[in-house]
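=== RUN LOG ===
request id: a7f3
mode: sequence -> structure
chains: 1
length: 470
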Amino acid sequence: MRARMSLTRKVQRTIERYRMLLPGEKVVVAVSGGIDSSVLLHLLYGLSQEHGYCLHVAHLNHVLRAEESQRDAEFVRDLARGLSLEATLRSIAVRDLIQQGSGSLQEHARRARYAFLEEVAEEVGASKIALGHTKDDQAETVLLNLLRGAGMPGLRGIPPVREGRFVRPLIEVTRKEIEEYARFHQIASVTDSSNLKSSYLRNRMRLQLLPLLRELYNPQVADTLAAIASILAAEEELLESMASSHLASALLEQGEGRVALSVSALLQEPIALQRRILIEAIRLASSTYLHLSHRHIFTLQDLLRAQNGSQLTLPGGMVATKDYDRLTITKGKESPPPAWEYLVTIDGFIPVPEAGVTLKAKIRRCQEVNFGQSTPLLAFLDMEKIAAPLTVRNRRPGDRFHPLGSAGEKKLKKLFIDAKVSRSQRDKIPLLVCQGEIVWVIGLRINERYRVRDDTQTVLVVEVIRDEHS
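=== RESULT ===
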């Protein structure tokens, strides 16, 4: 009886420490039929008598092991009946899912299992989903991620609570303790034969590497690795919080599937914060969690000091591009923006939403103009050279331009390069065009041919007003 009470108290302390469950909460218990999940159900059933937990058993048959899979489902059904608990059992052919997307069989099985558990929780009105991961699972995960080259996010291992919904009451319990508890209470379970196959990396870790580490190097290796995960999880939480606040100072632009950061602002941060900000930016752009190794992050950091135009492909179809002081992270390669063009009317306002500006054009006699007002967003043009139609548009392939003070024409692309305009911004710069000729690259230079001369009588004054939300 002492063994049972000891383990029960330990699990209850874990539940309280991480605020996993509240008295009276409805909990979906994921039960595969293996020893870990069977003991989890037994423990939670005992605790429910005191804390009022309402348990619902859930089991997903992945249809991977023929008769064995069916045996597991029937075992879980009988286990739930024996405790007078309601249960939801379903089947899904995971092998068929591989045809619908990339990823390994194990990844598809995991995604299907979690989706199933969330569906069941919604159907039965449960606020929590309890999973049977143990301290040994934690040790395996940390060691596996270490060998794969994961950074701190991977080395923090399996979180005791994820998304406020998935809870792991056995995360501080060793498999040895679970086996002793099962023997003491004669708790039946089934064995998944696939867990004994050394073809899977995690199985080799559990069956070969960890026993070797226990025997030759550290008998408490599971405790050590789990402690490392706990320490790193707390430090990672702190870094994430700091990165979120520091990201705001480096953020230049954020849109759907796109984030742009100031390179100079990033380089002012300590190296550890640089890495965390980059990880946070990738998450913003991808809208999901990506498994990034330390190599990905180190290479992305190197991109901050790379030459302009350098690119890096990241997992999940993400692409990072360095352009002057801008690091742009996008979900997939960006397609060219659509062409846009607006007719410019005199003495009217011309909104240009794609550029986030509004143009205002007016005609004035030369002696009425205060040329001392000149700014990058104000142009004075010789009206006698202007002819209809006058339009404002974005750039086109092959555009050329004769900059003020220059001996001749140059490609618009060369002007942008000389002015250090990043590629991502070039399509957003509006061009004032007269009968196909660029009169003003707004914000940069006017055309030499349209400048106001000593004999100019009438001036076209074009003012650019930035929209407040741009």
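=== NOTES ===
The radius of gyration is 32 Å.
The chain is about 40% helix and 20% strand.
=== END ===
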